[in-house]
Amino acid sequence: MTTDHNTNFDPYEFYAALVAHKLIIPVGVPGAFGRSAIFEDILERFNALVSAHSADDDAQMMTFPPVISRQLLEKTGYLDSFPHLCGTVFSFNGDERQARELSRRVGEKEDWSNTQSMGELVLNPAACYPVYPTFTGILPVKGRTVTMLHWVFRNEPSNEPTRMQSFRVREFVRAGTEAQVSSWRDMWLERSLGIFAKLGLPAHSDIATDPFFGRAGKLMADSQRKNELKFEINVPVISKTAPTACCSFNCHQDHFSTPFGIKTHNGDVASTACVGLGLERIVMALLKTHGLDPTGWPATVRKHLWP
Amino acid sequence: MTTDHNTNFDPYEFYAALVAHKLIIPVGVPGAFGRSAIFEDILERFNALVSAHSADDDAQMMTFPPVISRQLLEKTGYLDSFPHLCGTVFSFNGDERQARELSRRVGEKEDWSNTQSMGELVLNPAACYPVYPTFTGILPVKGRTVTMLHWVFRNEPSNEPTRMQSFRVREFVRAGTEAQVSSWRDMWLERSLGIFAKLGLPAHSDIATDPFFGRAGKLMADSQRKNELKFEINVPVISKTAPTACCSFNCHQDHFSTPFGIKTHNGDVASTACVGLGLERIVMALLKTHGLDPTGWPATVRKHLWP
Description:
Structural class of chain A: alpha+beta
CATH architecture of the largest domain in chain A: 2-Layer Sandwich
Distance between the termini of chain A: 46 Å
Oligomer: homodimer
């Protein structure tokens, strides 16, 4: 019998290698590092490849800021399911005396958190959220499809490089009948596996669940799994035995359609689905699989990104 | 004597026109609207024009997330000067019982702000902030230049469309000797006026000051003006008499070099300067000047953006 010491990679070694090769730039807070020009070039070229594969989809492009309306999360139950992941934006609304007190506390390294109060914005936790209110009303017969590239936030500080607090997702959202959105979701799963295969990534799809909070969350995850509402594409990046989810393919049933009054052409409550491609994770999957210097990647891979 | 009713435009009329022409997408929170594909196309093409004009600058590209280390703002005095503009990221770190209480308050539309606590991140208030720590140490003889395109945040909700809470800045930062950075700053002011002239924008440069908070802030602004540390390029967008600042050109003296230990090649405390181009404001300046349908813009303007 042999012992396989390579069953798992070392995530911190991979992080250190990304830093040493000037691909990411540490900032002193976990999961909020900077990206170098080389990292960004890979990311932009992957994004362009996705655009090329979806050019005939008639998807409308929208761009929303990294902060969205707090009401949007309140209305969709995000804080019930994922209270631990949410970032809320607080700010100072005091007078001159209070500003001097804030300044004094900062200078003396005292806690200044109670000088801040909650406002109307939260960090966007998933690229698709700001799109749903724009679907309110009756959809056209063929439904609607929107695409975005958004910065999203998750409150999960970690030195494991694929576990970021702030990252970008190329997203597609579809609203229509249940049949329209579920066949579209399945099409994207196949399409994405095809893109990953072209790029030589050892990718596999699997049923998945969202990271619901607490004990009640386990029941929600069980239901989600039973109904096959979420699939992910996984690639080994920081672990061989626990590959990293790089894309997700989600059917929401009426989760967004009911609160935002989204109806199919015949007046029924619509269904929605979304596809999210985690751009930084995909860049890291490419770097792990093909090496930290993209000029040395196989020609069969490079031709798709630098055509 | 005649009365000129056109001395000022109506900012809310311009906002409504941007919405009606599907250039921006309201989200129910002031200054956090979405951008359409047409808006984004103009923005990206202007950004590419800037890249073309600076291609020979040997500027290193970096990309940082919209959230940065809270310590970075504490260390640079941002909270002394601009406490009112800062957005701090709070989150929930409680247990299951506290999560149920958060959920109940959201459901019953009660204040849930005290379920949140301050973390290690703030929203990035100016594109250049995360770059300064990367300059720590001895600079090369020729200094260093970095460029970024970042989302920045300002806590100033307004329905005036150019006054955004979240927007993008194409930024250039230079570190070196006082002479290196101030001549570079002046070069960029001339270069930017040249780009604006090509695009047919009625642009003028002027000495400017930062929006320092309170009475003490007035003294800081006076000193900044006296030392000619900040220039802006203004274009009429929502007012003829108070044109909108679309770019700024800033000398920081040792404001960032001292806290981050940035030294010139001979060991002196370095100087830094930055140039920020407000991308959404420039898009709006183009739309105001040449009309809301870019396909109808003068050929002399279009050739620079759609070459």
